[in-house]
Write a structure and sequence with these properties.
The complex is a heterotrimer of chains A (377), B (286) and C (842). Chain A is mainly alpha-helical. Helix content of chain A is 71%, strand content 2%. In chain A, strand 1 and strand 2 form a beta hairpin. The two termini of chain A are 29 Å apart. With 286 residues, chain B is of the alpha+beta class. Chain B has 8 helices and 9 strands. The N and C termini of chain B lie far apart (113 Å). Among the domains of chain C are: 276 residues, Dimethylsulfoxide Reductase, domain 2, CATH 3.40.228; 27 residues, no CATH class; 126 residues, Barwin-like endoglucanases (Beta Barrel), CATH 2.40.40. Chain C has 23 helices and 31 strands. A 6-stranded mixed barrel of chain C has the order 24-30-25-27-26-31. Chain C has a 5-stranded parallel beta sheet with strand order 3-2-1-8-9, with helices on both faces. Chain C has a 3-stranded parallel beta sheet with strand order 10-11-12, with no helix packed on it. The longest helix of chain C has 16 residues. The chains are: A mainly alpha (377), B alpha+beta (286), C alpha/beta (842). At the A-B interface, helix 1, helix 2, helix 6 and helix 7 of A face helix 2, helix 3, strand 6 and helix 8 of B.
């Protein structure tokens, strides 16, 4: 379905719909900034972290395909994955932008956010510091990585300069991502009595990093398939199935580590003995690991349907994991539950819509991206 | 410099709330609108404007009735989770004991609220740019040798201000001198690695409202991971990346060398073939 | 208090009954806790488990209005188990004094004492008097020619029994009176389980030992009953039996409810008194001679007439002369009971034109407040002097009132707060402390002394030139405190100063003209006491420069000396305790009859054989040089008629009265009667209520009126009380944001059982109703209130604070809309503490 724009061009009807939702979200964001968090969210002294934290902690690992694939392309020098990397990078960049915008809405002192870049205020003991600084720096890295993609055709000097250092830039990106993907999990090390023992672990930051690789690559596979389809091009299954194989391997490692961790801590009994939390855990494990592992370890990874199914499950699994850790299995104040307000939900949805819209526009109108998809490299 | 603490003997507390009002007066905190929800407890909980509060609990013990009063406020931990987790050092622990907050550094991430095992830091989210609020142990008074407002005002002397280590000794002496009166435990002596605020109680502490938080320092693991783990990870990953980069470049180099070598050998073979053909043709002409 | 706040730390057992000290006098817990550090026990007896009970070692419940049963049973327990301090009782109380042979008590007359006039509803105390005997005394005197002769004089003295077993002695009558007050009776009437009562008895009566002392802390829970005065008497009797009066850590100690209510009562705020408790003359006392005759000739009160004269000299100066009976006729005389309740009854009946209401809020604190507010509406004018516009000042526009229906003209004069003016404040322990002004009053608010001075000036203007004898009291009033008035000049006058040289019998000048007198002893010993002006004899000495123990000399009440010889908490250099800086009254009783202390750890004052005077850690409440073995002179005047073993110098016989021959309207011994609104028939006797109490009947049966009801209509017992966070009628505390935050609304405390019966949940609104009105409140459901089994019936009780009104930040209905318009048989203090209500969900 298409609609006609003012210039009589035909654009899919999805664009104005997504745009409207995004604008609505922007308006709500202004309301939040002028009215405060109290009237607009269900956050409180009893539940200081809510949907937007879950949102951030989900979007960022799902954007992890950017660093992983940048590493594959520029460090491992597998140029054939460049097209997928460009998509992952663009989507990841948009994901990070949305995450940071939502974060700025979530914190109560966005006017003092510059505090995190003042070195004399840095607290090296704090994972929140690591997250803030490394995300800020990673933004710079991603921008550098994206410049050639966005402006590549123009052959500017700066583009060529960046191209020279791309492996270094990508390497720094991997380092920074390792830090902050892990640190997002490290945030919860201090909440050992508040987070349910099935999810808390002294190596929770390692789990966050690994699940970011899994989730990021799976999301990249998903985005790749949808993008190729959108441009009516043949999906490069051969590339994607290799990625799926990598994901399967990492998932197996993840599974072993997670179960091993529970075993060593003597918590294996909780897997089935925690009532509703057992259910949540088992669903997360099945949907997020067991099912996609089975799919990706089999020949199904050579089919588009298989890839879609596996990738979707992995992404959903990651969302369940983050939702559990930041909300459902986290008991901040005994007896006081939290459910996001309609404004929190709306802004989150709007952010996603905005990201999807810009991505779609980029896909169609950025020559480099379009070319790399069409040419399959 | 002495490290101070407060010993709160809940058996001496009469729930008069002098401490709570003195705190508001000294810190210029406003009153909030409250309703009576069926209890004496008002304000109902700590908040941005209530830094200490008395909680009222009625407990029917086997032989008698107990109306337990708990003065709740920041514990000023020896190993504060909030100080460890704040990204911009907006919270820090003074040598004299108080854990204080600097509003102009705060970015409002509310991590301190999530990390505190006692749920102490509070914020007024109805303000557009609110700050974190909590008891600051009257740091301004303490650093001038004066007791905090609550300790100064406490009419029955339930709050004792002094050097923390001496207060631990005093608390244990009180337990020893009055067998059967107190629960045999000084809460805060070792809780979360020790806190500046200590409690004595006649009823089990969880009935009084003080949670079982264990004796491990809350941020110890997180701290160690951040300070030791992160650099380790950085170094490891950097090494791995450099190794992978070198390996992949080497492979490319080797592949290109191989290609060149193949090219050369093909060319030589071609040339050899050509030579051979030329030679053969020359032979045939003769 | 007979003792002092700090003295509580010297006690071995602190009994809190009819008080919630932790709630309303939290600072007392410093001293209570110091006592407990030394092993003392804290016992709390209260209808509900209060904040004091939470801190106590032992708590026992009792039904509101049944204190005499409880205390009487303690008396009985002490007597039956021989825990009373026998030597003390025999030597210092009237235990051995024989009582009129026709005396009969409630045990014989089913609730009455002998001498009751059923029509007039009063007692004649003839049969309560002591038996007397005549003694002959040889007295040295001078005959007509001036020669020294010995004359034989005859005097009447109380007859003493040989032993405590004599059935007519006061002790025996006490014993047989309280024999009915058994632990079973306590359980039956008070609802207190016997074991709990016995535990209290065991703990407290142990202080009868000579080396132990127990203190009783009480407040409105004892006094605000129709038997309030007898409640206090019961405590006094118990303490006398246990030897706890006049000793450190003992005493009958009223915890006063306002910071200067002690000062107010000392300065005769009450309608029938004069400063220093001299008593206002009544219509029956036509002249000074008749009035003077009412003072006991054989106690320190023999000086009463002198103190009276110095008082009128202070007020009227040179206009008070011997010829006009020292302005005796200038004073109004009581022709009846003009206490609070009759006053408002008169107002309600339209008999009163105008009211000046100073720092009082009757609209909230008055009993049957709806009737009292209606009474205010019948005035032609009212002047309110207060810090805020109180409910009284705004009664004409209260919620539900149409201002057009009220014709009263109301003037509101803003007054300065206690911190905004200099002056003295007297603690419950009679300690006078001078306070400087530390803040400025806002706007046009003025100190009371300024406002009253303006009244005096204006009245003087109005009356100037009048020849009417009725106006002389105004025109002759001495008001020389300056303009604006200097409160220290007032202080000087209250202390007393010499209008002319004061001389003794030999003509020696004791005090020069214009100088302040050192103490009331000057008035007692002067040959010409009528040159002394003294505004309150009991305070005399408080403004005299004295050493603060650290070398500085300043007016006694201004001292803040930190020395405490003896470490009993006397702090003799801090402020000034009336009388004469005596901290523990009747402290002669802290020593044996021979002058040595009862016990080393309770020594307070003792006789120094060498210096031939009493010495120790307190100023002796006794003639300083009177030997322990000094004999009484039956024909002597004043203290000469008392022996060296008579500590109770204000009593005609120098003894503590176990049995009170006079002074109380309803009997010489406290007897239990039910509150006017009671849930049961009096199980103890056939007399349901205090027989001398006046029960008004104005507009009985109407919507607003003197309505009193019964348990079938209002089955729940109700009591009112105070909170730590609010204060009295709430004008100050409900206007303070932090306090309003802590206690924002009127609530009732209701037991879980009753709440369940009525389907009431915590936090829900309920309606409480009585025969006098109904109000809404929030329900605080608690295990601290329990129903009591009384005489086989389950009785529910609820309670509520009475601080709320419609003004201020924290508002709420007026709890006193529910209380009855009845008062104590002697003081008319309203029965706020025990009445009947019903409760239902709103």
């Amino acid at each position: 379905m298409t609609v006609k724009t003012l210039t009589k061009e035909s654009i899919p009807i999805a664009y104005p719909i997504l745009g409207a939702i995004a604008l609505f979200g922007a308006a709500l964001a202004i309301v939040r900034l002028t009215q405060g968090l109290g009237p607009t969210t269900n956050l409180s002294n009893y539940n200081p972290w809510g949907l937007w934290i879950t949102f951030d902690l989900s979007i960022i690992p799902l954007s992890g395909g950017a660093f992983t694939l940048a590493g594959v392309v520029y460090i491992l020098n597998r140029k054939d994955y460049r097209s997928i990397a460009h998509l992952a990078l663009l989507a990841g960049y948009l994901g990070y932008i949305m995450a940071v915008l939502v974060l700025l809405l979530d914190i109560n002192r966005w006017d003092q956010f510059y505090s995190v870049i003042l070195p004399w205020r840095w607290n090296l003991h704090s994972f929140m510091f690591e997250v803030s600084l490394s995300i800020t720096l990673y933004f710079g890295v991603m921008t550098l990585e994206l410049v050639p993609i966005v402006f590549g055709r123009r052959n500017w000097r700066v583009v060529r300069a960046i191209d020279q250092f791309v492996p270094l830039i990508a390497g720094v990106g991997v380092l920074l991502s390792t830090i902050h993907q892990g640190s997002l999990g490290g945030l919860f090390l201090v909440m050992s009595r508040k987070l349910h023992p099935l999810w808390w672990s002294p190596i929770i930051h390692l789990f966050f990093f690994i699940s970011a690789v899994i989730g990021g690559l799976s999301a990249a596979v998903l985005i790749a398939i949808l993008s190729w389809r959108a441009l009516h091009k043949r999906v490069p299954i051969w590339l994607l199935s290799v990625l799926a194989k990598v994901v399967a391997t990492v998932m197996a490692l993840y599974l072993v580590l997670k179960l091993g961790d529970l075993l060593v801590a003597g918590k294996l009994g909780l897997v089935f003995g925690s009532g509703v939390y057992s259910l949540l855990y088992l669903v997360e494990l099945s949907v997020g690991v067991l099912v996609p592992l089975a799919i990706f370890a089999s020949r199904a990874r050579d089919t588009e349907k298989g890839l879609l199914a596996g990738a979707t499950c992995a992404v959903v699994g990651l969302l369940l994991n983050r939702a559990a850790i930041t909300w459902l299995a986290l008991r901040v104040t005994p007896g006081v539950t939290y459910f996001p307000s309609w404004i929190e939900i709306s802004i989150s949805i709007s952010a996603i819509c905005a990201g999807v819209l810009i991505f779609a526009l980029g896909l169609h109108y950025l020559p480099t991206v379009r070319a790399s998809v069409e040419e399959g490299r | 410099m002495a490290k101070y603490g407060m010993l709160i003997d809940s058996t001496l507390c009469i729930g008069c709330r002098g401490c709570s009002v003195a705190c508001k007066q000294w810190n210029d905190l406003p009153a909030t609108k409250t309703r009576n929800t069926g209890t004496y407890q008002n304000p109902p909980a700590l908040s941005a404007y209530t830094w200490t509060n008395i909680e009222y609990r009625e407990v029917e013990a086997s032989d008698r009735l107990v109306w337990a009063f708990l003065k709740r406020a920041c514990m000023h931990c020896e190993h504060p989770a909030c100080v460890s987790v704040c990204p911009v050092q907006a919270l820090h622990k003074l040598e004299t004991g108080p854990v204080v907050y600097e509003a102009n550094r705060c970015i409002g991430c509310r991590y301190c609220m999530m990390a505190c095992p006692f749920g102490i830091p509070k914020v007024d989210l109805n303000q557009v740019l609110p700050v974190i609020s909590k008891c600051n142990f009257c740091a301004d008074r303490v650093s001038n040798g004066l007791p905090p407002a609550c300790a100064k005002t406490c009419p029955p002397g339930a709050i004792r201000f002094g050097e923390r280590d001496q207060l631990v000794v005093e608390a244990e002496a009180r337990i020893a001198k009055n067998p059967g009166k107190y629960v045999n435990h000084v809460y805060g002596k070792e809780e979360v690695g020790g806190t500046s605020i200590l409690y004595l109680s006649a009823i089990p502490f969880d009935q009084l409202g003080l949670p079982d938080v264990g004796t491990e320092s809350v941020p110890a693991l997180s701290d160690a991971m951040a300070v030791v783990g992160t650099p380790t990870a950085l170094v490891t990953v950097a090494a791995a990346l450099m190794g992978a980069f070198w390996v992949s470049r080497r492979r490319v180099e080797l592949a290109s060398q191989q290609q060149t070598a193949d090219l050369f050998s093909r060319r030589r073979a071609e040339l050899a073939d050509q030579q051979q053909t030329a030679d053969q043709e020359k032979e045939a002409k003769q | 208090m007979t003792n002092d706040w700090l003295d509580i730390k010297n006690s071995n057992c602190v009994l809190i009954i009819g008080s919630n000290a932790a709630e309303n006098h939290p600072a007392s817990f410093v001293w209570i806790n110091k006592a407990r550090e030394k092993g003392a026990k804290l016992v709390v007896v209260d209808p509900r488990f209060t904040r004091s009970a939470a801190a106590a070692d032992f708590y026992a419940p009792l039904r509101p209005g049944t204190d005499i049963v409880f205390l009487g049973a303690l008396i009985n327990y002490a007597i039956q188990n021989k825990l009373y301090q026998e030597e003390y009782v025999k030597a210092y109380t009237n235990a051995l004094t024989l009582v009129h042979p026709d005396y009969k008590g409630p045990a014989d007359l089913d609730g009455y004492f002998s001498g009751f006039d059923k029509d007039k509803k009063t007692y004649s105390s003839t049969t309560w008097q002591y038996q007397t005997e005549k003694v002959k005394v040889k007295v040295k005197g001078k005959d007509a020619s001036g020669n020294e002769v010995e004359v034989e004089k005859e005097a009447s003295v109380p007859k003493q029994a040989g032993s405590l077993d004599d059935p007519n002695c006061a002790f025996a009558l006490l014993k047989s009176h309280y024999a009915r007050y058994t632990p079973e009776m306590v359980e039956r009437i008070c609802g207190t389980p016997q074991e709990q009562f016995l535990e209290v008895a065991k703990l407290f009566c142990a202080t009868g030992a000579p080396d132990k002392s127990g203190t009783i802390l009480y407040a409105m829970g004892q006094t605000q009953h129709t038997v309030g005065t007898q409640n206090v008497r019961a405590m006094a009797v118990l303490q006398l039996l246990l030897g706890n009066i006049g000793v450190p850590g003992g005493g009958v100690n009223a915890l006063r409810g306002e910071s200067n209510v002690q000062g107010s009562t000392d300065m005769a705020l009450l309608f029938n008194d004069l400063p220093g408790y001299l008593g206002l003359p009544s219509d029956a006392q036509a002249d000074l001679k008749t009035y003077s005759a009412k003072f006991d000739a054989t106690s320190y009160w023999s000086n009463g007439p002198r103190f009276f004269v110095s008082l009128t000299k202070a007020w009227f100066g040179n206009a008070a002369t011997k010829d006009n009976d020292y302005a005796f006729q200038y004073l109004p005389k009581t022709s009846g009971n003009y206490s609070w309740i009759p006053l408002f009854e008169a107002m309600y009946s339209g008999k009163i034109q105008g009211l000046i209401c100073m720092g009082q809020n009757p609209a909230v604190c008055g009993p049957n407040a709806r009737l009292e507010r209606a009474g205010l509406g019948k005035l032609k004018w009212m002047v309110v002097m207060d810090l805020f516009e109180t409910e009284t000042a705004s009664f004409w526009r209260a919620p539900g009132v149409d201002p057009k229906s009220i014709q009263t003209e109301v003037f509101l004069l803003p007054a300065a707060d206690a911190m905004e003016k200099a002056g003295s404040i007297v603690t419950s322990g009679r300690r006078i402390q001078w306070r400087p002004k530390v803040a400025s009053a806002p706007g046009v608010a003025k100190e009371d002394i300024w406002i009253i001075t303006q009244f005096v000036k204006a009245l003087n203007e109005l009356y100037r030139g009048s020849t009417d004898a009725r106006d002389r009291p105004i025109l002759d009033l001495v008001w020389d405190y300056g303009d604006p008035p200097d409160v220290e000049l007032v202080a000087r006058e209250i202390n007393g100063y010499a209008l002319d040289n004061v001389v003794d019998a030999t003509g020696k000048v004791l005090v020069e003209k214009g100088k302040i007198i050192p103490s009331f002893a000057t008035i007692a010993s002067a040959a010409n006491p009528d040159v002394i002006a003294c505004g309150a004899w009991i305070y005399s000495g408080y403004f005299v420069p004295a050493d603060d123990g650290e070398g500085k000399s300043l007016p006694a009440a201004k001292r803040r000396g930190q020395k405490d010889p003896g470490e009993l908490g006397m702090y003799p250099f801090w402020g000034f305790a009336w009388p004469a800086n005596r901290h523990i009254l009747y402290n002669r009783a802290s020593a044996r009859p021979d002058g040595t202390p009862w016990s080393e750890n309770k020594k307070l004052i003792w006789w120094d054989r060498d210096k031939k005077q009493w010495t120790g850690y307190d100023v002796p409440d006794f003639a300083a040089t009177k030997a322990p073995d000094a004999a009484a002179n039956p024909v002597g005047v004043g203290l000469a008629a008392q022996a060296g073993t008579d500590p109770f110098i204000m009593k005609a016989d120098g003894k503590g009265w176990l049995f009170a021959p006079k002074g109380l309207s309803e009997g010489p011994l406290p007897e239990h009667y039910e509150p006017i609104e009671s849930p049961v028939k009096n199980p103890l006797s056939g007399v349901q209520n205090n027989p001398v109490v006046k029960v008004w009947a104005t507009d009985k049966g109407k919507g607003i009126g003197d309505n009193v009801s019964t348990v079938d209509k209002f089955p729940i017992v109700c009591t009112t009380y105070r909170l730590a966070e609010h204060w009295q009628a709430g004008a100050m505390s409900r206007n303070l944001p932090w306090l309003a935050e802590a206690q924002p609304e009127l609530f009732i405390e209701i037991s879980k059982e009753l709440a369940q019966e009525k389907g009431i949940r915590a936090g829900e609104k309920v309606v409480v109703s009585s025969a006098r009105g109904q109000i809404e409140a929030v329900a605080v459901v608690t295990i601290r209130f329990k129903p009591l089994m009384v005489d086989g019936k389950k009785i529910h009780q609820i309670g509520m604070p009475w601080h709320f009104g419609w003004q201020g930040i924290a508002t709420g209905p007026v709890a006193n809309d529910l209380t009855p318009h009845v008062g104590d048989g002697n003081t008319m203090i309203p029965e706020y503490k025990a009445f009947l209500v019903d409760v239902r969900k709103a």
